[in-house]
Amino acid sequence: MSIKQFLSLEWKQFRRSSFFEKGLVIKILMLLAALYFAGIAIFAGVIVFFILKKTLPEEDPFKIINNFLIYWVIGDLVLRYFLQQLPVLNIKPMLILPIQRNVVIRFLLLKTSFSFFNILPLLFFIPLTIVLIVQGYSPFMVVLWFLSIISISFSINFLNFILNKNNPIFYGVIVFLALISGMQYFGIFDISQYLGVVFYSFYSLGYTLIIPVLLVILLFKANYRMLKKNFYVDGAVLAKKQSFSNYNLEFLNKFGKLSIFLKNDIKMITRNARPKQVLLMSFFFLFYGLIFYTQDTYRDLPIVLAFASIFVTGGFLISFGQLVPSWDSEYYKLMMSQNISYKKYLESKWVLMALACAVSFLLSTPYIYFGWDIFAMIAAGASFNIGLNSFITLYGGALNRVPIELNQKAKAFSNTQGFNPTQLLISLPKLLGPMLIFYIPYKLINFNAGIIALALSGVLGLVFKSYFLNLIEKVYQKTKYKTISAYSEKK
């Protein structure tokens, strides 16, 4: 079976998808966004050399670029892990046909090479390479340097494939990146200077090109062996057996009828890949404040601090809550056929988000280091999240009817049906609301008045909790059968 035939099958699968026409507009918007970022990459590749030359005239701009390439490598790896959608190929029909496994596996790995994340570096480094040649650098050595950098880009691509499939390697890479980032931040060890010499050696020596080329080959073979190991009919057809620990969740019984839903959600989060990913991302939200609270520019803009305070404690609320009830899409029809209270179901989700906000607030205690005013802002943001933002998020979830595969990690643009203009409008109060609630009293009275107003808005939401839940329940009840129908559709 040739590559041309594989491409034909891929096009037919794309064209015959039940969601093709629904997702066509979103795909066009994604294409326009890709063209926009492509234009930025080309422009940056053209001007970066001249900007560095003007800013630091006494230093070689090319060496400075090489010193910063390590940050590109780390950033590219992180973005790929969270955003790049890995290629999927339905292999079950091919396993019973006279098609060589080697051909199918090579095609699948070839699909990873045509990712936009691989094309973007080309659009940056090709113009930069041309600029370097025009500026008098050796054309032959510059081309060797370019080939080395592109090889590193493809190495990151294949490493990302392994990280998504191998948890031990993923955690090892995370620990390594955390160590070098920490040493860099505290001035213990400046890795950029040493690795800058390595990157520059691709130009100064040339023969060091063999290092990234060998790295690409090794990672390609590692992916090949990993795929081939599981490329069998038994592995594809037989159900995957998993063993789970039985958690003692009796402490949740204090929530009464809500405990059934809470236990189910906690087990879902701890046993499935997608919820675990959300939990991990929620933890990273705690560090969101470091972007703003460490900069004097933002410290002088309290309205921006109010914006940041929402994200410090609202990571789980935002990432988990906006996908209610999609988390239960695989068994939603069964749930709706049971004699359960819709209000209790929604209230259990609210309790889970409120508890997550409370835990996040406790974990944010080290922000006291930046001053009691900052910590008070975070506390007020937590109050807003629990008392108002949680209800806004639950309401927006009613507009999201995209089924979720619990054991498949989410990637950017992996589900274009999630786009909903109404849901986008609902998200505006979550972002602009706390800023306005804080800013008006702050401008009219003082900083403390803004904090008190933001905190009281959350308290007010708790007072009218039952009222808000009743309103949200009516929305969910009204769209109940549309939601069931949407969850029944398959791509």
Word description of this protein:
This protein has 491 residues and is mainly alpha-helical. The protein has two domains: 3-233, no CATH class; 250-487, no CATH class. It has 23 helices and no strands. α6 (116-134) packs antiparallel against α7 and α19 (372-397) packs parallel to α22. The longest helix has 36 residues, at 20-55. The two termini are 26 Å apart. Mean pLDDT is 80; it is low at 412-420.
Question: Helix-strand pattern, N to C?
Answer: HHHHHHHHHHHHHHHHHHHHHHH
Number of strands: 0
Mean pLDDT over all positions = 80
Structural class: mainly alpha
Distance between the termini: 26 Å
Topology:
Layout lengths: L2 H13 L4 H36 L5 H23 L8 H4 L5 H13 L2 H19 L4 H27 L1 H19 L5 H14 L5 H20 L3 H5 L20 H14 L1 H13 L3 H5 L2 H4 L2 H20 L10 H5 L5 H22 L8 H26 L23 H24 L2 H17 L1 H14 L1 H9 L3
Task: Kindly summarize this structure in a few lines.
The chain contains 23 helices and no strands. It has helices at residues 3-15, 20-55, 61-83, 92-95, 101-113, 116-134, 139-165, 167-185, 191-204, 210-229, 233-237, 258-271, 273-285, 289-293, 296-299, 302-321, 332-336, 342-363, 372-397, 421-444, 447-463, 465-478, 480-488.
Keywords summarizing the entry:
491 residues; mainly alpha; 2 domains; globular
